[in-house]
């Protein structure tokens, strides 16, 4: 029965998108994964199986790259991570729990609590460069409004040295 219900929504998506472009329509693509989960540029081995950066639009949709004319980076006012992997600003305390609760940072399917931490400007700068963003918008500023401290990460300390570049070895 599900197949019949879904049938009206199944189509040749590449053709649909190309027809829209030919008709002069604007098309909006939304990434559903964080850039650091990108299979090629993410924090391997803690990545997904696809390209979650704008470079994945042509291969994932069939729309040629030349039609991608504006890239907006969307970041949270704090950092989250699902599952394992490096997380330099992670908060495992009452502040982290408050951010998680107020921001409703739980898996939509599993309900599993997401890991939360302070805003990581190093990661944002790195992923913005990879994505080639034209602009960045910061979401969920209200979640941080009740916190007594406003902290953010601008550098990492690795092997006793401070760096202002995102590490290529993913903190391993």
Task: Describe what you observe in this structure.
The radius of gyration is 19 Å and the shape is globular. It has six helices and eight strands. It is α/β, with parallel strands linked by helices. Strands 1-5 form a two-stranded parallel sheet. It has a two-stranded antiparallel ribbon with strand order 2-3. It has a two-stranded parallel sheet with strand order 4-6.
Count the E strands: 8
Order of helices and strands: HHHEEHEEHEHEEE
Q: Provide a count of the helices.
A: 6
- Whole-Å distance between the termini? 49 Å
Radius of gyration from CA coordinates: 19 Å
Our estimate of the beta-strand percent is 15-25%
Uncertain segments: none
C-alpha geometry: globular
Main sheet record: 2 strands, parallel
The average pLDDT value, as a whole number, equals 91
Secondary-structure-based class equals alpha/beta
Cross-sheet strand order for the largest sheet:
1-5
Search tags:
single chain, 172 residues, alpha/beta, two-stranded parallel sheet, 6 helices, globular
SSE topology sketch:
Elements: H1 2-6, H2 13-22, H3 56-61, E1 72-76, E2 79-81, H4 94-102, E3 115-117, E4 119-120, H5 121-131, E5 135-139, H6 141-144, E6 152-153, E7 156-158, E8 161-163
Quick overview of this protein structure:
By secondary structure, the chain is an alpha/beta fold.
